[in-house]
Amino acid sequence: MSKINTLLFDCDNTLVLSEELAFEGCADLLNQICELKGVSPIVPFTGPKLILEFVGQNFRGMLKSLQAKYGFELTDEELEVYVRREEDVVINKLKQGLRPCPGVDDVLARLAESGKYQLAVVSSSALRRVKVSVEAVGQDKYFGEHVYSAATSLPKPTSKPDPAIYLWAMEKLGKKAEECVAIEDSKSGTLSATRAGIKTIGYVGPYEDDKKSEMEKTLKEAGAVVIMRDWKEFDEALEKIQSGSV
Predict the structure, then answer these.
(1) Mutual orientation of helices 164-173 and 187-195 as an angle, nearest 10°?
(2) Is residue 185 within 8 Å of 203, Cβ to Cβ?
(3) pLDDT digit string, tens, across residues 195-241
(4) Non-local CB neighbours of 191 within 8 Å, separated by 6+ positions
(5) pTM for this structure?
(6) Contact 134, 95 (CB under 8 A)
(7) Confidence (pLDDT) at 186
(8) For the chain, N or C: smaller number of CB within 10 Å?
């Protein structure tokens, strides 16, 4: 029976329902960048279109993917300007309408009360955005300073599916992979955690009902050892890992 003592939570659409709001802001900004660079995507970017293509990636990762796809270039200075601007746009949207994922607050409260686990957030998004997110819904009390960002915390910024942010978080927490469980809602996030050697619970709650089965398959293929559709299933999912049955 494994000794799990650390739970590592993705933020966007795992703790908070932020992806739809965030991608709306991203789409507006990307359309501006494409216009400035003379790039003409087949149709203008929309929030839903970006979610399908880039869920789990941060804005820096999106910009690099789009440069390769559409053959335009951004200088390092331009990249940093746009990354910062995206933070501001998204944070404003999150402050206006962010909500927690249904049921997660009850789980966090129970976990904190038990005192059995170190709780931390491990995200691709910028640290400023992640902190605003958990503070906006009152979850910051569960994590304190244990919030880690692939875009901000690392010496060299990156994005999931690179495992660097999970390796960094474990180093800072003084934990080994076998002591940890990650909770992720995206393919890139699941790959990031599993490539760091961490057993991962895949969460498909925020996806539309007609997409849930497809996402379950995607997350399993990315390495998730158990899937949950609702936070009510968390205890059972965690017990499967702790017992060694998955």
Answers:
(1) 50
(2) yes
(3) 999 999 999 999 989 999 999 999 999 999 999 999 999 999 999 99
(4) 160, 161, 163, 222, 223
(5) 0.85
(6) no
(7) 94
(8) N
